[in-house]
Amino acid sequence: MLKITLKGGVVKEFEPGTTIAEVAKSLGAGLYKAACAGKVNGAVCDLRTPLTADCDLQILTFDDADGKHAFWHSASHLLAQAVMRLYPDTKYTIGPAVENGFYYDFDVEKPFTTEDLAKIEKEMAAIVKTGEEIERFELDVPAAKELMKDQPYKLELIDKHAAEGGPISFYKQGDFTDLCAGPHLLSVSPLKAIKLIQCTGAYWHGDSSLPMLCRVYGIAFPKASELDAYLTMMEEAKKRDHRKLGRELDLFDIYEEGPGFPFFFPKGMVLRNQLESFWRVEHTKRGYQEIRTPLILNEELWHRSGHWDHYKDNMYTTKIDDKDYAIKPMNCPGGMLVYKRRLNSYRDLPQRMAELGIVHRHELSGALHGLMRVRCFTQDDAHIFMTPEQIEEEILGVMELIDSFYKVFGFEYALELSTRPEDSMGSDEQWEMATNALIKALDKNGKEYTVNEGDGAFYGPKIDFHLRDSIGRTWQCGTIQLDFQMPERFDLTYTGKDGEKHRPVMIHRVVFGSIERFIGILTEHYAGAFPLWLAPVQVKVLPVTDDHIAYAGKVADELTAAGLRVEIDSRNEKVGYRIREAQLQKIPYMLVLGDKEAEAGEVAARDRRDGKTTTMPFGEFLAKVQKEIADKAN
Question: Would you say 331 and 357 are in contact if contact means Cβ atoms under 8 Å apart?
Answer without folding.
Answer: yes
